[in-house]
Structure formats: C-alpha cells, structure tokens
C-alpha cells in the first residue's frame, strides 16, 4: 500500500515574549522582546515588554505624561464628530481597530483606539511608535494621518489597508506568482532602504507586520507597519529586541 504523506501542521503566528519560550540561548540578554505593538491590529497579540524604559527622544518625544508627544487633550466626541466610526477590524491587549470614514471627504481610514488605563506603564512604547510614524512618509509604509489625545484614550487615524497581513495571506494562498513575490520584496526593500537613509531601524520585521494591498487587476503590494520597536540610530544599539522566531542570528548571538 502506498504510504500516506504526513500532514503538514498548520502555521501559527509568532509566539509570545521570549521569556515564555524555550530555545533561547542561556545568558541571552532579554532587554526587550516582542510580539507586536499595543497599536497593532493583530488579534490579541501581546505587547512588547522591556526590562527598562525605552528612550523617547525620537522626534522630540519627551518623558511620560498624560499627553502623547505634546498633543493637547481633546474630548472623544471630537473624533466622532469628524469621523463616522464603523466595524471592528482588529483588536489587541490594549487597543481596538475600527474602520472609519471622514465625514467631510468620505475617505476611509483605520482608527486605532488605545485604552490608556490598560497600557499603564507602557506609554513609552506608544509614544515611540507615534513619534517615528510622524517622521516617516513612504508609499510602502503605513501612514499616520492624525493623532487625537483624550484623558482616557488615544486615537490614531491611519491609512486603511483591507488585505490583512502577509502571514494570513501566505497561509491562505496555495502559491504566489513570481510577479507578486518580486513586487512585495521590492516594496519591503524600498521601505527598509528609506528608513535606514533617515537613520531609523524597524527591529521587528515579520509577516504579521506587513500589510497586503490588493488591486483590481489582481496584483498585490506590501506596506510596513507596527513601529513599536523602531528607533532612531544615534550611535551603537545594544538592546536585544524583536520577535524570537524572526530575529537575526547575530542579534541572538549579540555579535551584530
């Protein structure tokens, strides 16, 4: 009888923080580990955890405060008056992501609503991500449109990408054409090149942080998101961070 080939186990998304994983070399510095940022639209993904606060010097971000990067506090009704808020398209430990439409123009966006009470003590991660996103502008990077700060919540109005993340796209596809694959690599390389030219490193590139744009002609492109671990390079970086299943070998070995 012919042998039945073993079933390939389903792919699973990136595991939780490295201190909950096996296989991390003994003595590896765990200054920072990652699953996703608190503003990521991934479903119930854990926040990045640091053993010490991240510097919030990016683009003028100051110390922790009730406000984010100098935003003056407004009422949550300001957002509701300006945008028509729709269905939930993602959620996490500290944030929910909803579709929204600007009332004046009819343009669609993604609205990330961050609950300040649930991310107490992790504000520096959000400040860092917002500061970097305010600084970057590239066609292959998710664009931050607007930030509105309220006493209890932070609202991030962002570019809406409806194709989901690359991980889900890969697992639901039997194959990718060479045209689509090469276009996606081109998009990612362009985004990384741009970031490095302005001395920013992302430090958590993985399929879950790449959003897929789908076009009427069937072609696809990528946009890089989730900048919770990104930082401006002003000198040597010694913090070990990233998602363990995707981090570069030299980072794990602390040689790069």
From TrEMBL:
Protein kinase domain boundaries? 83-256
**Positions contributing to ATP binding:** 112
Q: Which domain of life is it from?
A: Eukaryota
Instruction: Note the InterPro entries from the entry.
Output: Kinase-like_dom_sf, Prot_kinase_dom, Protein_kinase_ATP_BS, Ser/Thr_kinase_AS
Check the record and name the SMART domains matching this protein. Answer: S_TKc
- List where Polar residues composition bias occurs: 31-40
Which parts of this chain are annotated as the region Disordered?
Answer: 1-45
Q: Does the keyword Transferase apply?
A: yes
Q: Does the keyword Transferase apply?
A: yes
Q: Which UniProt keywords apply?
A: ATP-binding, Kinase, Nucleotide-binding, Serine/threonine-protein kinase, Transferase
Query: Per the similarity annotation, which family is this?
Result: Belongs to the protein kinase superfamily.
Q: What is this protein called?
A: Protein kinase domain-containing protein
Its taxonomic path starts at: Eukaryota, Metazoa, Chordata, Craniata, Vertebrata
